[in-house]
Amino acid sequence: MSENSASSGSSRLCLCGCGLTANHFVAKTQLNGGRRFYKCPRFDEASSCGLWEWRDEEMPPHVTMLIHNLNTSLKSVEVERNYLKKMVANLEVGVSAERLKMEKIMEEVEGINSAKLQKASRLGQLLHQSLLEQAFFWSEYFECWSAELAFECPDWIADLAAECHDWMDELAAEWSDWIADFAAECHDWMAELAAESSDWIVGLVL
């Protein structure tokens, strides 16, 4: 008699006709599900004593049917578990791929923002240099003009020219400070733009 079975270690010892400790199993068939039995360790060999006997009495049909249904449900749960494990593994692969894509996009965004920051910095420096050159030109112009007026015109005109020269020096200093503040604001604005772009890209990917 053959049965689908599983071995069990929690059983009393039973010696077979070969003098060996008989193996202990639990049947899993529909008719005898959960019923324990003994079998000779050499049962499949020609020298076996042929021991194969039930340890438990025959159970009522409704009990064996209940055990069979439970075993069937357990198998279904195991199949579902394996399927879910496979799904999780596939999702992990997909998440890893999306993470790599996001990192690549972030690197590209950082590169673009860095280029924009450098460009804004260069423009600020050029503007600053241009205004300084203009201020220097007009300062030199008024200096020459004031010298000519001092020679050719009355003293009050010379004083006016000197005041204009001082005013141009102050204006040049104010322009220099304004350009520096403007360049700093451009840098801060580009840094905020880089942070907002990064957050937007992360939200888009997720």
Descriptive account of the structure:
69% of the residues lie in helices and 7% in strands. It is an alpha+beta fold. The protein has 2 helices and 4 strands, in the order ββββαα. The protein has helices at residues 61-152, 155-205; strands at residues 5-7, 23-27, 36-39, 52-54. The protein has 3 domains: 13-58, no CATH class; 62-130; 153-205.
Briefly characterize the structure:
It contains 2 helices and 4 strands. By secondary structure, the chain is α+β, with helices and mostly antiparallel strands.
Which SSEs are present, and which pair or pack?
Elements: E1 5-7, E2 23-27, E3 36-39, E4 52-54, H1 61-152, H2 155-205
Antiparallel strand pairs: 1-2, 2-3, 3-4
GO molecular function: zinc ion binding
Domain GRF-type: 14-58
Keywords: Metal-binding, Zinc, Zinc-finger
Radius of gyration equals: 47 Å
- The ordered string of helix (H) and strand (E) elements is EEEEHH
Number of domains: 3
Average pLDDT for all residues: 74
Silhouette: rod-shaped
Largest sheet: 4 strands, antiparallel
End-to-end distance: 60 Å
Number of helices: 2
Low-pLDDT stretches: none
Strand segment tally: 4
Structural class, please?
alpha+beta
Q: Strand percentage, roughly?
A: 5-15%
- Within the largest sheet, what's the order of strands? 1-2-3-4
Helix content: 55-70%
